[in-house]
Hints:
By secondary structure, this protein is mainly β. It has 2 helices and 18 strands. The strands form 4 sheets. An 8-stranded antiparallel β-barrel has the order 11-12-13-14-15-16-17-18. The chain has a 5-stranded antiparallel beta sheet with strand order 3-4-5-6-7, with no helix packed on it. Strand 17 (171-173) and strand 18 form a beta hairpin. The longest helix has 5 residues, at 91-95.
Amino acid sequence: YAGPFGLVKISGGPKKYEARAVNQRFSLKPNDSDEYKAALKLFGLFPIAPKELRKINFYARDVNGSKMIIAEDKASRLVLGTQIKTQPINDAWHERLGTYTISNPIETDIEMFKIEQLALGYEDGFYYSEIKSFSGNLRTPLTVMNDTQAISQGLGRGLGETVLAQPDGSLLSSGLVLIKKN
């Protein structure tokens, strides 16, 4: 699944699922109304449920032919992810895999918004961009459209953005110029 928190991997079956998102593992267990409650997996092993997490119900819905994971509490509803499909290897994008620096970084004094580097990768049938910053890593799956254009997958702010490959080997993304490290 792709969404505002990047790539979300879900495995398991109807009685118990495990989700991996934002560098965390969660267990998802069903309640009485076809919804699930989440618990963080402390050290990847022990489920714990902070008070804020216990208030949220998670469920899947088909919307216009797309399967979505929804998080809902009494006050709000958020699409956490839209199901995505694996992609075959694209030779042009596969050659671009690696680490990039930003030649025109956004100036900010707020540490959590400083991007250290960006990487392009391919894993388990998915191309992705991974932003490495002070606040952690965010992996966003990409749909390769052709040899020079890829689009970030999912619904939400900052998703559906285009990554354009330039003739000089650089990439353009959200106004940033990315230069591959050798």
